[in-house]
Design brief:
homodimer; 339 residues; alpha+beta; 3 domains; 5-stranded antiparallel sheet; 3-stranded antiparallel sheet; DNA-binding
DNA sequence: TTTTAGCACTCTTTTTAATTGACTGCTAAT
DNA sequence: ATTAGCAGTCAATTAAAAAGAGTGCTAAAA
């Protein structure tokens, strides 16, 4: 494929991303390649169509990129520096926000990306159950109520309120705290399970209900933690592809049964951007969308994975530029700043 | 206004709520009043229009209810028992869910209402800043990190993580705990303010930064608590009125600048249902919608306010029935069950 | 050999006109 | 007081015509 055809393909994708309308040979000449004639463009377009990079919607329409076309565009034709000074400033402001919790940073990052790219953005925090426990604290909030606080080795804090049907004493709480820490320090969160319940019960012979409740509530909290965080849900509704009821419905469905998105996000590879275009998504309902995921981190602390979902003609250049830039910022800040 | 006219008006509103189409005299005869002729209905409709309860969309169209018509319908023509056995069952199931936090109960109630009525539902918890403090606990999570836990007199628990730029000792934390409790027990949450900061500083002469940070973070948490909780945002999009771009846009806007909804919810009167039909809403953007709010409670514990927003032709009967029923359930449960 | 002007052809979109259908309001009869 | 029946109105639907935006191909020019 010669250089001119590549330029034309890029022009077609760029134009289609901008307008969502099939691109005609004339448009290419006027906006991208003023030195060749539309007939020449037409010849090249015929060839590009033959080898499968572009398609027609009907006999006499302009061309739209095919899945293969988008793929080539993303892999070879794209420069990732599509970010303005204003945007850099804005990102800087947002990332300055002081957060007390790693999760909050992920949320801020998520909403920043959504605001700049205008696409729906989802995220999950770092996988809770694999994190190692540094310390567990139990704080009595009443004779039948406890708060469990777990500090992990990477510094995240998880807490939950636990209520009992019977009284518990400070002394019991102290013993429980000692025993939990003794057994769990340095171990991953998913060590809090049924066998642990039996172990603790055998050691203490306290009311099995209290021990059971504690373990169950902590498990519930860990599971709750893996919830999808979602920002900019309705941003997409302005897009022309959402005039199709089918497309809109699929979109809403995919976000609702959030297992789908969770699966995709969990597939992320550390510090690597993954791009799934249309059919490349495993889920049938995503066939009209592209998903870009990025598992971000500070140093080697996993920060969870962010995913952007938009139409196949999403602005790949902008999205990927912003992701790369934010990732860089997070790591730079870490180098200069706080511990 | 005679009995027959009232029946016809009710029929028109009911029919319009169901179909969203102007109601013709023939429809009334066929579905509601088989023993009178359509000409008679037409005569009555002309009169109902003259006195302002119904309107035409054009010369030869059927009638739709006017704001005044809805008002009469809601005030006088409606029975509030529009709830099926399945729905009662479903509500029962949902309300059985064990919760550790009052806020979670509000969330469950909110989502239940949204699921049954198919309308977008919003809620706020009980006004935090007026709640009285029962106890404050500070738990050290590291030499520069603290968790503040506040238990209020009505039993809600609020907690936040606080990070410092300098070290703090367990002894300092103990003193702070004593001082905070001494000063604040029995006082409302909004007593945690600038004057308190000065008082504590004068007593202790600890690093002003630490004291300042603690107070600010707690204030931030309290403020955060007043966030709108929103369920079923896109339920409305299937309704025919949302085909109008203007209506859809207004709806999205109102929910986004959530101050509007917060204001409305805060206007609630304990255990009373408020209904705002179309123009009765203060906010211009709500002119095509109706909002129904209900400030619910268990015994005399305020549980916050729930609001339902839907088209003017919303199913008032169902919405209000469900609200009343849930309110009853909550209070009955409380009588029989747990403390 | 590559590029281009030009024209016929195709398909969609827009515009216009004609028809149908759902109502009401009124009049005259019951 | 009610109702049958019919003329009149407007919106919605259907049909037909015109306009417009493209392409592909051919033959000439570079």
């Amino acid at each position: 494929m010669d250089e001119r055809k590549k330029k034309i393909l890029r022009a077609i994708v760029d134009e289609y991303i901008e307008t969502a309308e099939p691109v005609s040979s004339n448009t290419i000449v006027q906006k991208y390649e003023p030195n060749i004639s539309s007939a020449t463009v037409r010849n090249d377009m015929a060839e590009l169509e033959r080898i499968g990079f572009i398609e027609k919607t009907h006999t006499s329409s302009g061309r739209v990129p095919s899945a293969k076309g988008y793929r080539l565009y993303v892999d070879e034709l794209l420069k990732y520096d599509d970010i303005s000074v204003e945007e850099i400033k804005y990102i800087g402001e947002k990332l300055k926000t002081k957060v007390n919790q790693l999760e909050d940073l992920t949320k801020i990052t998520t909403s920043t990306i959504s605001e700049i790219t205008h696409y729906t953005t989802v995220s999950v925090g770092p996988e809770s159950s694999k994190q190692n426990i540094e310390e567990i604290k139990f704080v009595m909030l009443g004779s039948r109520m406890l708060m469990a606080i777990i500090v992990t080795e990477i510094g995240t804090i998880k807490e939950t309120i636990i209520k009992f049907d019977e009284d518990i004493t400070q002394e019991q709480v102290n013993t429980l705290t000692y025993l939990f820490n003794n057994k769990l320090r340095g171990k991953p969160l998913d060590m809090i399970d049924k066998p642990l319940e039996e172990y603790i019960f055998n050691e203490l012979h306290y009311s099995i209900n209290i021990i059971k409740t504690i373990i169950e509530e902590i498990q519930k909290m860990i599971k709750n933690d893996e919830k999808l965080y979602l920002e900019g849900r309705n941003k997409n509704f302005d897009l022309p592809e959402f005039k199709s009821l089918d497309v809109a419905r699929n979109f809403v469905n995919v976000l609702d049964e959030n297992d789908t998105m969770l699966d995709i996000l969990k597939n992320g590879v550390a510090n690597d951007i993954q791009i799934y275009i249309g059919d490349e998504n495993k889920n049938e309902e995503l066939k009209d969308f592209s998903v870009i995921t990025f598992k971000h981190s500070i140093g080697n602390k996993d920060l969870g994975t962010i995913g952007i979902i938009g139409p196949k003609r999403m602005n790949y250049s902008k999205v990927i530029s912003v992701m790369k830039y934010i990732s860089k910022m997070l790591n730079d800040d870490n180098m200069n700043g706080k511990e």
